[in-house]
Amino acid sequence: MACNYNLASVLGVVLVFTLFHDPITVTGQNIPAVALFTFGDSNFDAGNRKFLTGTRFPQNFWPYGKSRDDPNGRFSDGKIVPDFIAKFMGIPHDIPPAFKPGVNVSRGASFAVDSASILGTARDSLNLNNQVRRFNQMISNWKEDYITKSLFMISIGTEDYYNFTKNNPTADGSAQQAFVISVISRLRNNIEMLYSSGASKFAIYTLPALGCLPIVRQEFNTGNDCYEKFNDLAKQHNARLGPMLNDLARARSGFQFTVFDFYNVILRRTQRNMNFRYSFTNVSCCGIGSHNAFGCGRPNVHSKLCEYQRSYLYFDGRHNSEKAQEQFAHLLFGANPNVIQPMNIRELITYPVNTNMSEFWKEPVGRNLLLVHEYDVNASASM
Ligand SMILES: *[C@@H]1O[C@H](CO)[C@@H](O)[C@H](O)[C@H]1NC(C)=O
Ligand SMILES: *[C@@H]1O[C@H](CO)[C@@H](O)[C@H](O)[C@H]1NC(C)=O
Ligand SMILES: *[C@@H]1O[C@H](CO)[C@@H](O)[C@H](O)[C@H]1NC(C)=O
Ligand SMILES: *[C@@H]1O[C@H](CO)[C@@H](O)[C@H](O)[C@H]1NC(C)=O
Ligand SMILES: *[C@@H]1O[C@H](CO)[C@@H](O)[C@H](O)[C@H]1NC(C)=O
């Protein structure tokens, strides 16, 4: 077993260097000194949940943070995407959790909370609207023109569709559509609230391939297949996200955004794992069950922990390994429009403020998104 996976990793490395450019993002060059604000769920939670509820949550305990020897409230074996983005932006430290008392938020803060949803509110968590309100309570920390230049990243929605699927297992097409429309419309309201407070640069994630999460494969017993019904809901949400943001950009002066196609980023890695140097994409590194997907970090659960986190796409049943998070951050910052459009984050934060965008989000037609290049052919040279 160990032997197989070593060979597999070596092959993966060879493949990726021959087939793909893997540019190293250079920190700080020509990047304005602005702040990074993040909103959403556990993908972006920098430790807020502990400060909100004072309760002990697994993500504050080993083996979370294992690769850094530091459980820090993040759902990963180490750092998460916003930590890397902050670094690429030249911010000299990680973005602090906004709910931690006394933090220095001069270069931004994380408002994201584990289990946060757009509609409803999960127990011991906050919804997106509560997070936006918190931002508004703290707004005297930043000048308005600084807010306008700063980057707002949002990753949320998984919890809403989980909840919907559990409560409405037999929902038909029109019930699904009505739910998706209500989620997208509430998301729009919250983005508009941030815009009213001065924000103008938004980077928004699509939902990932929810049906391919190890915890979903495990709960719904799909074996080595993804749960397509769940993927389909994510696709419906994603199809309405770009058009909603296009509308906003056309209606609101100086509104700028980009959409990160997280769905296909995950699916490419799931289906062509070796090209991206993952030996395991259908099971997680830490947890128990058929897909090792449950209970990582929980007391009283004797969860298994893999030997080498970097060969896994998922660290626990639902969250990506640090290696994957770092790959995503490079994509967000420097990838081409197959991955993030109409521009990447490097372009978004250098785009002149108070200017309308000249390009909009377009539905990708006729491209096989599982086979595309993620970086421009000359990207390494131009960085
Ligand atoms: C907050 O951090 C910034 C650097 O990010 C620093 O310039 C500033 O002095 C700090 N403020 C306080 C009150 O420590
Ligand atoms: C889950 O759905 C129920 C019933 O529709 C709702 O009351 C609750 O607020 C929802 N929770 C979340 C986190 O969306
Ligand atoms: C995960 O994928 C591997 C390789 O395709 C397969 O052998 C294994 O059975 C899968 N594991 C599960 C739990 O589906
Ligand atoms: C920018 O967009 C807004 C909203 O559509 C519009 O009112 C404004 O005239 C546009 N500004 C320019 C310079 O085109
Ligand atoms: C890539 O670089 C080559 C050589 O410098 C140049 O001829 C070509 O136009 C570049 N392609 C793009 C898409 O920028």
UniProtKB/TrEMBL annotation:
<keyword id="KW-0732">Signal</keyword>
<dbReference type="GO" id="GO:0016298">
    <property type="term" value="F:lipase activity"/>
</dbReference>
<dbReference type="InterPro" id="IPR001087">
    <property type="entry name" value="GDSL"/>
</dbReference>
<dbReference type="GO" id="GO:0007029">
    <property type="term" value="P:endoplasmic reticulum organization"/>
</dbReference>
<dbReference type="Pfam" id="PF00657">
    <property type="entry name" value="Lipase_GDSL"/>
</dbReference>
<feature type="signal peptide">
    <location>
        <begin position="1"/>
        <end position="28"/>
    </location>
</feature>
<dbReference type="InterPro" id="IPR036514">
    <property type="entry name" value="SGNH_hydro_sf"/>
</dbReference>
<comment type="similarity">
    <text>Belongs to the 'GDSL' lipolytic enzyme family.</text>
</comment>
<protein>
    <recommendedName>
        <fullName>Myrosinase-associated protein</fullName>
    </recommendedName>
</protein>
<dbReference type="InterPro" id="IPR035669">
    <property type="entry name" value="SGNH_plant_lipase-like"/>
</dbReference>
<dbReference type="InterPro" id="IPR044552">
    <property type="entry name" value="GLIP1-5/GLL25"/>
</dbReference>
